[in-house]
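Lay summary. Proteins are chains of building blocks that fold into shapes, and those shapes determine what they do. In this project we predict the shape from the chain. Here is one chain we studied, written as its sequence of building blocks.
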Amino acid sequence: MLDFVPAPARLPSNMRVYAVGDVHGCLDRLLAIHSDIAADLAERPVAEPLLIHMGDYVDRGTDSAGVVALLAGADHPLSGRVVNLMGNHEDLLLSAVERHSAESAQLWLINGGANSLHSWGIPRTTPPAEWADRVPPEHLSFVRGLALSHAAGGYVFVHAGVRPGSPLGQQSRHDLLWIREPFLSSATDFGAVIVHGHTPRLRPELRRNRIGIDTGAVMGGALTCAVLEADRVAFLSR
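And here is the predicted shape, written in a compact code that computers can read:
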């Protein structure tokens, strides 16, 4: 049974959002979270459910390819009612496979990209110029098409956060994917409550202006899903 607490913003009464934090190749945990979401929907149907994956599907974990294949397909509990956001690790992947520069390739590799290559069956010795041809084209198409943000009710969902003082509609791509400070310590009213991942914590962070849901699934922590409805929030963890 979900343990709801007051949330810092509201959703319309006919809507529920399931926001899943940073997966990082942990396919088994993502499947378990999806199963929990399906069970909750079966027990508590809602007219407008929405599943949002918050980015960082790849790197560090053992099955980035499996995670991307799952999300690029339709075999999850809210097929057709899903928003997939881009994370900074998808940004690193695209830079590495599209720029063909030694710097972007090395940056991806040292940030967990070697595990992603392995999950696609690509030997570490494969030249970076060949990586794009070895990743399934539908997987690269999925990554290229990821959204940077999504708004629902009083919330805006982004991977990393926003820059205080900049209007929500004028945030830079880099900040949406990479920012930590000054976002994390800011008490600013951003104009909406920001739901984000990117910065791992031992447990979800529930603040007046933001909700952080990266709980370090690939670092010995849990994969967390925020369940937002009306003026309340609960958390599923796997």
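What the prediction tells us: The chain has a mean pLDDT of 96.
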